Amino acid sequence: MPKLRGEAFWRETLRSAHYVVAPMVDQSELAWRLLSRRHGAQLCYTPMLHAQVFLRDANYRRENLYGEACPEDRPLIVQFCANDPEVFVQAALLAQDYCDAIDLNLGCPQMIAKRGHYGAFLQEEWDLLQRMILLANEKLSVPITCKIRIFPEIDKTVKYAQMLEKAGCQLLTVHGRTKEQKGPLAGVASWEHIQAVRKAVSIPVFANGNIQCLSDVEECIRKTGVHGVMTAEGNLHNPALFEGRNPLVWEMAEEYLEIVQKYPCPLSYVRAHLFKLWHHTLQVYQQLREELAKVKTLEGIVDVNRELKLRCQEEIANQKEGEKPKEGLPFFHWICQPYIRPGPKERCKENGTRGTEKGVRGKRALEEDEDGNSELLSKNKQKKKLRNPNKSFDPSLKPKYAKCDQCGNPKGNKCVFNMCRGCCKKRAFKETADCPGHGLLFKTKYEKSLLWQSSQTGIRNPEISQRDVDVGETAILKEADDT
């Protein structure tokens, strides 16, 4: 049977899915997907999987995809990050029997993606992407899809989408933010870009960004004309988002924990989900937040969840008539609701700080204060401050190091070549020279080896023979290994 493409693939294989749960690293595991499907999600993605690791590690495959068969977990799309056509396709071939499509991640904006050279950091390499998708489209028995981020320019974003479609992409998810828009600088996603892509391609398009409740989903479909809407954080804070409900947090938490009992996953995943579900409540009960962070067993997490439920029920029982939610929340903290990520300006206000000349402070600037004020430090720095109260994080007090002439790392204070140890070692070895500052004595060792050779032959002033040179080189190489 030939594989379905484009609209036919979306209608028949994906069952005309409108409500989609995004691929989320360590968060869209089987247990969470099943919870989301029970409450309105029509299509789910696996977490982003690393193609190279998936290809070589059988345990990684088993833990992330080859676990217990679950007929309810369909339709399902497996997402990979990759930057090599052969590796991507070989990994996809191992996964295609367990899913309905393979997705290529071209949207991850995190630093790990930059270091690994994948995700959104491939969006300028159109030739490579064409080769990856063409090969996958040719070799796989299931369709190939892509999830992308936009360029600042609408025209370039449209051309990008058209290139992917021409290469063989059968469905496109467009996150309406650039790769620079992340964390506190995320801002609002551009539905205008998504609408332009939808009009320019003939394959199905999913929209991603600005989705916190069901009315956002409906408005996005109406404004952009997309086939479906994908959400990540909105789903994590309210798994019943696609049902248009805002249930009690403990109802969702208890149901999720029951599913985890049947389909186990790492404890870190479970803990992270409860931190999201109970986000607003944990701002009120800080002690329980600490307990949730420290607990080491699933039973312990269940106990913390039970205690949070009891605290909230007690609060409800003592609630005064007409009392309204605090902290500007639309609902009381024990009800599933969106978490609106504050932008840089709001964070500055929360921390009582001034912005830069443009009124925006970078993430790092938010963590540091010129006087080392612990209220403005990150949690890791605050822990270091507790261990060492005299420690200062004032950048102006950090020692200034002279840079290596070769690579820019700090140079050795007494290096004769004005280099770091690594560069100095290479040069001293190449030139058979000494650097007392770094304890490198290639020249001295070489001369000693020649003197020793002279004493062995009984000749006071011998000409240097090839054997002498060999002995000297052996001594230099030994010195290089020792250092």
TrEMBL record:
Keyword Endoplasmic reticulum assigned: no
UniProt xrefs under CDD domains: DUS_like_FMN (cd02801)
Entry keyword Lipid metabolism: no
Molecular functions (GO terms): flavin adenine dinucleotide binding; tRNA dihydrouridine synthase activity
PROSITE patterns registered for this protein in UniProt: UPF0034 (PS01136)
Cofactor(s) required, per the database record: FMN
Residue ranges of the region described as Disordered: 347-394
Keywords, ordered alphabetically: Cytoplasm, Flavoprotein, FMN, NAD, NADP, Nucleus, Oxidoreductase, tRNA processing
Locations listed in the record: Cytoplasm; Nucleus
Assigned GO CC terms: cytoplasm; nucleus
Entries under InterPro entries matching the protein: Aldolase_TIM, DUS-like_FMN-bd, tRNA_hU_synthase_CS
Record EC number: 1.3.1.88
Main location: cytoplasm
SUPFAM superfamilies to which the protein is assigned, alphabetical: FMN-linked oxidoreductases
Transmembrane segment boundaries: none
Catalytic activity, as annotated: 5,6-dihydrouridine(17) in tRNA + NAD(+) = uridine(17) in tRNA + NADH + H(+); 5,6-dihydrouridine(16) in tRNA + NADP(+) = uridine(16) in tRNA + NADPH + H(+); 5,6-dihydrouridine(17) in tRNA + NADP(+) = uridine(17) in tRNA + NADPH + H(+); 5,6-dihydrouridine(16) in tRNA + NAD(+) = uridine(16) in tRNA + NADH + H(+)
Annotated Basic and acidic residues bias: 347-366
DUS-like FMN-binding domain segment(s): 21-310
Matches recorded under PANTHER family: TRNA-DIHYDROURIDINE SYNTHASE, TRNA-DIHYDROURIDINE(16_17) SYNTHASE [NAD(P)(+)]-LIKE
Family: Belongs to the Dus family. Dus1 subfamily.
Function field: Catalyzes the synthesis of dihydrouridine, a modified base found in the D-loop of most tRNAs. Specifically modifies U16 and U17 in cytoplasmic tRNAs. Affects the level of some mature tRNA and thereby the total cellular translation.
Name of this protein: tRNA-dihydrouridine(16/17) synthase [NAD(P)(+)]-like
Gene from which the chain derives: Dus1l
